[in-house]
Amino acid sequence: MNDMIKMVVVLTILSSVSGGLLASVHDGTKAQIENQQLKFVKGPAIKTILKGSTNDPITDRFKIQDGDVERSFFVGKIDGKANTIAFESFGKGFGGDIGVMIGVNLDEDKLVGVSVTTHSETPGLGAKAKEDPSFSAQFKSLSTNDSIKVTNDGGSINAISGATITSRAVCDTVGKSLETYKKIKPQLAEQIKAF
Amino acid sequence: MFNQKKFVVSHAPFWHDGSSLSTRHYHIMLAAIPAVIPGFIQYGGRAVAVVCFSIATAMIWEMVVNKIAKLPVSIGDGNAALIGLLLAMMIPATTPWWTVLVGTLIAVVIGKQIFGGLGANPFNPVMVAMAILSLSWKGIFDFNEALLSYDFDFTMAYPLSSLKAFGPDAISSFSMTDLLMGRQTGGIGSTCGIAIIIGGLYLIARGFIRWEISVSFLGGVFVTALLFAMFGEEGKYAGPIFHLFTGYTLIGAFYLATEDASSPVNFIPMLIYGAGCGIMTILIRNIGAYVDGVVLSILLMNLANPLIDKIRPKALGKVVEK
Amino acid sequence: MAKSIVQEFTKGLWQEIPPFRLVLGLCPTLGVTTSVENGLGMGLATTFVLAGSNILISLLRNIIPAKVRIACFIIIIATFVIIVEHLMQAYTYQLFQTLGVFIPLIVVNCIVLGRAEAFASKNGILPSTADGLGIGVGYTLSLGALGAVREILGNGTLTIWGDLGFNLASVFPSFQPFTFMVQAPGAFIGLGLMLCAINAIGD
User: Fold this and answer.
1) What is the pLDDT of residues B154-168, one digit of tens each?
2) Fewest Cβ atoms closer than 10 Å to its Cβ: which of A52, B137, C135, C145?
3) Does C162 map to a domain?
4) What's the half-sphere exposure (Cβ side, CA atoms, 13 Å) at B102?
5) Is residue C193 in a domain?
């Protein structure tokens, strides 16, 4: 009986110490990891979306509380005027979460670009959403009021062959991001003046 | 103490036709000569150099390994020379010297000696070398690219590449007699079909290789290609005769698949083994991504060899359970 | 019986060098050694986990009940692995991306659990630290060596943290990379040949 108690106690203590330690490590490295991801994953995506911007969108960023989530917005100055923002949101793909970065022009209410950041889709099929530029190019210059759908569902986006679910997920995520955009547009317009 | 001479019982195969290892290997090399000579004539000094260098380096590597492993030097049995010759027969005449050097190193050391030398190798050493070489240096072993500097009076495209890239319409310019007579591009000693067949028949007649493997190999190629041509999508697959006379099919059937240590010894397993090689060859050529499937199909069947060799006659005098 | 601390450390460098003498931890050995950099990075991550878990387990060796020792070891090892994962993500993000799933897989690396069970749970803290560091450094060196062989043959280059760059093509302009060596079967043959060489050299 004594043994039994000892086992339980030791295991419990070990687990809780380990849990506490990991939580603090997680907190300690969180900011740094975010920075690294910005630099190596989101950075290139933002750069392609906000191509031609004269500033550095990664440093010119601000955060807005949207319901439960805090979102980062990256500002791009195109033609000398800060009127374009890029932000990331997540949707459910075929193999897990898909991160999609979209860029919107505030003046014209138009998409300037879409880029997949993180994903765990099937290599060669769904992964093309990130690798094949012709898929994401289709989103370019769609209006924010258009409904974003694949052709099978009556939309205008040609799905990647063999990866309908991924294509749909990307479209859904873009649609969701646009909803968010419309909802917080006044705030965005307010914030962007600072740049 | 009771002292009696013990009977030494070894396991099968018990076959013996009186020839020693070296006569075997030298006869196989002799039989390969008719196939190599057209290569010499076609490709000139380059081909002679590649063949000589390949045989020489294979023997040198064998000796080096023997010395390192402190074993008796075994280049006298002719196997290293045979490996060098067969490897040279499969590669283009323009192969650079260092590729040949690496090829014979892989064949003799990794393909054969590491497993314990002649007779213990689970794979055909030449096939191991060919597979690794062609995976590593695609450009050197792409016959279209490699033989660019030659100019012959027949179609200069490698038949199997044309088939893979442009479909059977592109190969209508190859006449079957041309293919059989060696008027096609390819390895130094693997193009002249008629010479390979003559050499192969000589080896079969002398009992150095088993007809079961060669015949079932060719049968497998023929039947599978025929099925594809008959039932496959119209205008997508080439006919069986074309497959028989192109690429490594003939050299594979007579010289490569029949390698002693890596092929079965019983009648039915030999048929299965040969047919498996043939079927796999056509499957790789018609469906797979590679241009020629002989090398990989023989390697795959080498792998299956211990398994299919389990099909054997019942032992005599065994107690039968009721 | 009692070996000196130095001996405990140096045995991991040759007599018990993990992939070659103990033939343990082969999964990352084969999986990530496509370049020196990956090999060394993987080795260092494993060293950190090994040393950390060895120290902690030898500290706690009298407290941990024998019946649940494996569970306790795994908790400790997993903690260190997650720490290393976070740290690599934070400071060496690109290396973290190339090593990918092999970092979390350090948990199931038999070297780590093997050292915990066979050594740290029976020895004091100093020998255990020396043992963990020694085995870890030995592991790092072997991964680096295999990575170097594969990278130089298969790619013709040798790059360590981008600073020390070497290109075989600058010495032999006609060199064509032996691509087979950076592919999966090349890892097996490379490892086999190195095992062979190490055995030939002997103790």
Assistant:
1) 777 788 888 877 777
2) A52
3) no
4) 20
5) no
